[in-house]
Design a protein that fits this description.
Layout lengths: L1 H12 L7 E6 L5 E7 L2 H8 L5 H9 L2 E6 L3 H15 L2 H4 L8 E5 L7 E5 L13 E6 L2 H14 L14 H4 L13 H15 L3 H11 L1 H8 L25 E9 L2 E11 L2 E2 L5 E4 L5 E5 L2 E4 L1 H12 L10 E5 L2 H13 L6 E5 L13 E5 L6 H5 L2 H23 L3
Parallel strand pairs: 7-13, 13-14
Antiparallel strand pairs: 1-2, 1-3, 4-5, 4-6, 7-8, 8-9, 8-10, 11-12, 14-15
Length: about 400
Amino acid sequence: MSIAFSEKLHKISKKFPNSPGVYFFLDNKKRPIYIGRAGLLKKRIASYFRTKDPRIGEMVQLAKGLKFEKTKTLLEAIILEANLIKKYWPKYNIVDKDGTSFDYLIITKERYPKVLMVRGRELQKYGAGSKAKIFGPYQSYRLLRTALGLVRRIFPFGKCRPGQRKPCFDHQIGLCPGICVGVISQKEYRKNIDNISLFFGGQKKRLLKNLKKDNPEKIKALEHINDVSLLQGSDGVLSRRRDGIYGRIEGYDISHLSGKDPVGAMVVFEGGEKNPSQYRLFKIKNFTTDAVVNMRINYNDVGMLKEILERRFKHREWNLPGIVFVDGGLNQVKAAREILRKNNLFIPVIGLAKTGGHSASAYTEDKLIITNTKKSNKDLLISSKKIFQAVRNEAHRIAIGFNRRQSKRF
């Protein structure tokens, strides 16, 4: 009899759409015994009928029904899944788990609320007395961290101490709205926090209503948040690029003084933060000039950039980037794209045509040049301008420092 039901469910699963959403395995009273999420519902459900995992096989045989609920993005599916697990606590979601092994999102109750990720065993710190808001359970800490990272790009919040005067690094790259330096009021900051609460609480209609009134441009960013390969895979597993748009950004710059001791630098940002252990330096070997024009030598900066990119992508043992960033305009972007094509790689390439020096502040006139990505992805990338300015500044700093050491100029 169980086998018959399994065959019936298999037929039902073939009618599932290949789109993001949440799926339910049900018992004979139509109560969930397992709730999962997927980027491609049909593909994910099909895998259950090929599994060799005895626990999953047992669940499929016991299930008497199967249904789904579509969402616009996988990120929305992840949020919905957590809220539904909290509501139903399905048997096969909690088997082999105790309450302390799940992960939760906490929003504290204070003047400038904090947004925290905690394990289940830490929840007792945030009981009724604390008045904290609790969201979850989430079955993966990495998944929750990535989801929060994506949402933080749209609704920035601070981890710093209010009024510390010196801007924190997160503020420099656009993740903190500036509570550290007092550039955002408590009222405006709470709007961001309230929007985060609505998002993780699954109250999308209320959230969109608020945004339509106050920040309609953020509605578009929310719509495209899943289109930049930030979260992918039919079972919600993250790609190796990733902790969001900032999984691994490699930034490149070259430096020389009138052609003397030309060098290149590769800097790496992961999760929106610098990772100096991954930086690499290159001595330019095949230095040439373009021509002599009006008694001035035109140094082949694009050729130098090509050389360091060619040498970098020969290192197959290095992790591939999610984004390649070059300091420069269209010519530099085209050069990077050419090298990627030679290596059969399709990775977004972003250039920043600078118009305002190299400080960490946001230069409104700096122009982003974006290639190798869908048109729909560009909104989120454009909204992340500050991170690319930070990558540009760091690559410039490292390249100049290396050039000076090579030239013995201090």
